[in-house]
Amino acid sequence: MASLKEVKGRINSINGTLKITSAMKMVSSSKLHKAQEAIENMLPYERRLHRMLTNFLSAGVTVESPFTVKRDVKKIAVVVFASNSSLCGGFNMNVIRHLNEMVEEYGNRIGRENILVYPIGRKIADAVKKIKGVVPMGDYQHLCGKPNYQEAADLAVDLINRFLDGEIQQVELLYNHFKSTSTQVLTRETYLPIDLSSKEDDEHSESSNKEADYIIEPSAERVMQELLPKVLRMKIYTALLDSNASEHAARMMAMQVATDNANDLIQELTLLYNKSRQQAITNELLDIVGGTMA
User: Fold this and answer.
1) Which end of the chain is least crowded, N or C, by CB within 10 Å?
2) For residue 58, is pLDDT > 70?
3) What are the φ and ψ backbone dihedral angles of 189, each rounded to 5 degrees?
4) C-beta pairs of 151-154 under 8 Å, 24+ apart in sequence
5) Lowest-pLDDT range, 83-92, 96-105, 184-193, 195-204?
């Protein structure tokens, strides 16, 4: 059995860890509140904009756009969202594992040298450096800490230009979608070519009985020319906010679990300390009684 000094030292050590995890939980909770507010304000707008576009096209308007053209994939870009720091459970590892699966999938088809990875977050940037063959495209660590629309839009413009120039034929997004504080869903989406097929959503879909009726000014082509790039820029920023909220939620839950485990361990060690102390006192009393009888 461990000595009283060793048990007390472990209790003091775990108490120190408990204070750290409790503080990190409170910080993550505060950051989550702001991030959750941002994504909950942005996500309905982005979805409504996309749905308006699909309804607009379903109204009998036929407009050709280079953003919707599917081509033979010879080179692909993958935009991966993770975090700059750890201590957030399986948040980063799930993204890294799925990215490796994507690299295997596309590497067998087009070769790893034709996979361009845009790593958003230090953890995923470090992981990409360890994946043989893939080409990392720049450093976007700063986007994780402070999501910024202009920088996200600049990234979207870069992807759009590469797609329009034929340098890449497909762009995919990989990020964690914030569903609730306890649930983050790893999401993989095709960013380009854009899918304008109407997708029904239980919460947000309009009644199928309603027919879209639009008066288009100045022309359908002009509306599409203005609206599609805006949808694409907005999508990158929305995914960034989504991943940011998911990161803070995952870290808050991880710190909550760590705090609970520390409390449980302190209770077990305190019980052990009291038992050891009681046994030591009992042994001393027995020695005194034994000496008196002798």
Assistant:
1) C
2) no
3) -130, 150
4) 152/233, 152/236, 152/237, 152/240, 153/233, 153/236, 153/237
5) 195-204
Cβ atoms of 80 and 116 within 8 Å: the answer is no
Single-letter amino acid, residue 88: C
Among the listed residues 169, 143, 105, 145, the one whose alpha carbon sits nearest the alpha carbon of residue 236:
143
Other Cβ atoms within 10 Å of 201 Cβ, number: 9
Tens digits of residue pLDDT in 209-260: 455 566 777 777 777 788 888 889 999 999 999 999 999 999 999 999 999 9
Q: CB of 119 within 8 A of CB of 82?
A: yes
Mean pLDDT within 123-145: 89
- Which amino acid is located at 43 in the chain? L
Burial profile 218-249: b = 16 or more Cβ within 10 angstroms, e = fewer: eebeebbeebbeebbbbbbbbbbbbbbbbbbb
Residues 29, 22 contacting (CB under 8 angstroms): no
For residue 83, give the amino acid letter: S
Mapping DSSP to helix (H, G, I), strand (E, B) and coil, where does residue 179 land?
A: strand
pLDDT in tens, 149-198: 999 999 999 999 999 999 999 999 999 999 998 899 999 999 999 876 64
Is-contact 244 140, C-beta < 8 A? no
The DSSP secondary-structure symbol of 138 reads: -
Contacts 24+ apart (CB under 8 A), 30-37: 31/248, 32/181, 32/245, 32/248, 32/249, 32/252, 35/178, 35/241, 35/244, 35/245, 35/247, 35/248, 36/178, 36/245, 36/249
Residue 4's pLDDT is 85
The Cα 172–Cα 139 span in angstroms is 18
Residues 49 and 234: their CA atoms lie apart, in Å, by 9
Joined together, the tokens standing for residue 80 give 């991966």
DSSP for 194-240 reads ---S----TTTPPPTTSPP----SS-HHHHHHHHHHHHHHHHHHHHH
